């Protein structure tokens, strides 16, 4: 690529979250950035979009960055609006994050961070989602050189159409990172643990969906497995077509014969 | 199966929507039903879940159905709560719908209807999502016998672990249905057309994400292609692991060598 690549940044933690600032810091010298992120935190919003309410967009005053907006919607809303209304040319890449909390394994479809990257894929624009495992005291400094390297590699060696890269960093301040694994998606996920509680005055019960990561019995050589061993993981995730082709082949005749 | 199958019903249009009433009507004689649906419409909520607010659950008075609740959350929230708090044994199947508006092609990851079925898959419970193409004046009567047949077939011939069935009916009152196709996912989707409008008193602009279905240049022999020709479509959709295995194989060495 002879010109500077154009990159659209988003996240699901909102425009004020530290993660997206680090992402901008990592990429501002190597790319022309447009930044469009939710005004509020939208964790676990997946690929949801806002179709029943209007959306407001506000310009954000942010250091040296000129093209920064926040949106009263989800990461997928942000990407839709940026592509259709705020960028004259489509970006070369959508980069989403950095999310505090793992989006490895089966978490990815729940993740608003990954949702932002999926929305790019729906418009045939490749994407990368970045997350760090620790969501309590996330550390980002050491991720910057990795992010630069991964983004440059993807710009120079385009992803297949319909595929994004889901990158997760292990809980670390950088010194003990074991390396990076290009690997497959694991089965672990944050599970719900709907806590039953009692309303303070009305006495009726309500629920709160908590989060607890399942870490046991992970299949070997998956992202969730390698992260536990201190590796950064990058999983190529295909979202454009999800057909179970083996089942389609095996059952087509018996299914269609039913009718 | 010697006993009556246990089926959990949900939808994304809310407990008062006609679609889920038709679903219950189609299945109440062949299955033990538990019904848990959002109190409000949650269209386009995908697999999003509610983790930043508490959820309330209310029992719903509904004809002969005894186990009916509504939840102040998304379809995925409903399925999580039903499985963990409202069903003593896991259901044999999660059935979601009937949604007015196509969830064929690339719409499926945006769809709250499909999201309810995906949430079941995350707990290794198979699922089926049903939608009709027309979202303005949806017609459901003719779908009931098809739904009964498809559900019975899936109960007797279990889906592979991690795979759900995405079923879409063409715009029809039944008489002109051409048949049923067990097929692959198409590329069409409802696209955003963010309409820019002006606030009535404040004068600033806002956006509204509209919906417009792309119907052109569909690959042949896909769900979106067959629906246009008047067929019911059923697509086996695998969501448990989304790794792009071809890319993983081709790029593993060159990617890991970067670091």
Task: Give a written overview of the molecule.
The structure is a homodimer of 259-residue chains. The first copy, chain A, has helices at 18-27, 75-86, 112-122, 143-156, 223-228, 245-256; strands at 6-10, 32-38, 57-59, 68-71, 93-100, 127-132, 163-169, 179-182, 190-191, 195-198, 205-208, 212-213, 231-238. By secondary structure, chain A is an alpha/beta fold. The first copy, chain A, has a single domain, classed as 3-Layer(aba) Sandwich (Stationary-phase Survival Protein Sure Homolog, Chain: A). In chain A, strands 3-4-2-1-5-6-7-13-8 form a nine-stranded mixed sheet, with helices on both faces. In chain A, strand 10 and strand 11 (205-208) form a beta hairpin. In chain A, helix 1 crosses helix 4 and helix 2 (75-86) packs parallel to helix 3 (112-122). The longest helix of chain A has 14 residues, at 143-156. The radius of gyration of chain A is 19 Å and the shape is globular. The model of chain A has no long low-confidence stretch (mean pLDDT 93). The interface between A and B is large, with 82 and 81 residues.
List the helices and strands and how they pair.
The structure is a homodimer of 259-residue chains.
Chain A: E1 6-10, H1 18-27, E2 32-38, E3 57-59, E4 68-71, H2 75-86, E5 93-100, H3 112-122, E6 127-132, H4 143-156, E7 163-169, E8 179-182, E9 190-191, E10 195-198, E11 205-208, E12 212-213, H5 223-228, E13 231-238, H6 245-256
Parallel strand pairs in A: 1-2, 1-5, 2-4, 5-6, 6-7, 8-13
Antiparallel strand pairs in A: 3-4, 7-13, 9-12, 10-11
């Amino acid at each position: 690529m002879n010109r500077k690549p154009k990159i659209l940044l988003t996240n699901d933690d909102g425009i004020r979250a530290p993660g997206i600032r680090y992402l901008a810091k990592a990429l501002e010298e190597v790319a022309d950035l447009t930044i469009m992120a939710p005004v509020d935190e939208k964790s676990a919003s997946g690929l949801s979009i806002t179709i029943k309410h209007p959306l407001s967009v506000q310009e954000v005053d942010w250091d040296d960055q000129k093209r920064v907006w926040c949106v009263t919607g989800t990461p997928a809303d942000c990407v839709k609006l940026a592509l259709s209304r705020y960028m004259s040319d489509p970006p070369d890449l959508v980069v989403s994050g950095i999310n505090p909390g793992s989006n490895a394994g089966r978490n990815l479809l729940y993740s608003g961070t990954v949702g932002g990257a999926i929305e790019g894929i729906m418009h045939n624009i490749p994407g990368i989602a970045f997350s760090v495992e620790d969501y309590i005291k996330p550390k980002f400094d050491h991720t910057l050189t990795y992010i630069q390297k991964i983004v440059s590699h993807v710009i120079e060696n385009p992803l297949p159409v319909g595929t994004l890269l889901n990158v997760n960093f292990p809980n670390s301040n950088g010194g003990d990172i074991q390396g990076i694994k290009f690997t497959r998606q694991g089965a672990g996920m944050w599970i719900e643990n709907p806590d039953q509680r009692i309303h303070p005055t009305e006495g009726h019960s309500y629920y709160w969906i908590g989060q607890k990561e399942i870490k046991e019995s992970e299949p070997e050589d998956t992202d969730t497995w390698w992260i536990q061993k201190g590796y950064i993981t990058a999983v190529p995730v295909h979202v454009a077509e999800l057909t179970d082709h083996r089942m389609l082949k095996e059952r087509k005749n018996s299914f269609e014969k039913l009718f």
